[in-house]
Amino acid sequence: MILLVHEDREYLRARGDTLETDLGVLEIPEDAEPGETYETHLGEPFAVRELRGPDLFNHLDRTGAPMMPRDIGLIIGHTGIAAGDRVLDAGTGTGILSAYLGRVGANVATYERDPEFADVARSNMETAGVTEHVDVRVGDLSEEVDTLVAEEERFDVLTLDTEDAPDVAARADELLVDGGYLVAYVPFVEGTRAVVEAVRESLGDAETFETVQRRMDFDERGSRPSTAGVGHTGYLVFARA
């Protein structure tokens, strides 16, 4: 998949597809490469771009509110997730986190309870080009822990974005390799405290952060943080085995 860009418009398409807009019709070449520009039959230019992480956030099919790039950045930064790492994830949703981790080369097993959501996530993994790295499974991870432990599966990172995160966090020591990380993304303070208490029983102490980001506005009147947009997204709990 590639992005076709005209000024402030972006369209996600496959090579060989036909793009039809009010700017004209564009037959996308099979060999279209990033950096090239093609014109519609009306002479309107579209530049070709390769998909990057933020493009996935903007264009993948959604089944709910996806994790924000800033939260994903903190997860990668605080855990050092890298190529070859094994990641166990609960709460696939749209699959934004799994797609980002797959693109850095981590091998992700992600659990989604809703079969229809899982199908959308699998399609998104194809769009992101990470099917060889991301395995979308239908199920509840809290019900699969016994099986994973019995099979002696161990992971470098455990990421949780589910209501039952405390239940899985309580058994994190059985799922992580020595030195591995647990990360829980939690929208509410009450759930965050429950995760922290569970982590203290299984791994020990935890670090918790509220993720807040403000865009800056610069105009002729002056410079200030924007009054628009979402500042707070959630809480991130980190702990190490």
TrEMBL record:
InterPro entries: rRNA_Ade_Mease_Trfase_CS (IPR020596), SAM-dependent_MTases_sf (IPR029063), TRM61_C (IPR049470), tRNA_MeTrfase_Gcd14 (IPR014816)
Keyword hit for tRNA processing: yes
Domain tRNA (adenine(58)-N(1))-methyltransferase catalytic subunit TRM61 C-terminal: start-end pairs: 69-217
Any single GO CC term annotated in Swiss-Prot or TrEMBL for this entry: tRNA (m1A) methyltransferase complex
PROSITE patterns found in the cross-reference section: RRNA_A_DIMETH, SAM_TRM61
Presence of the UniProt keyword S-adenosyl-L-methionine in the record: yes
Keywords: Methyltransferase, S-adenosyl-L-methionine, Transferase, tRNA processing
An example Gene Ontology molecular-function term: tRNA (adenine(58)-N1)-methyltransferase activity
Recorded superkingdom: Archaea
One Pfam family in the UniProt entry: GCD14
Biological process terms in GO annotation: tRNA methylation
Protein name per UniProt: Methyltransferase domain-containing protein
Organism of derivation: Halomarina oriensis
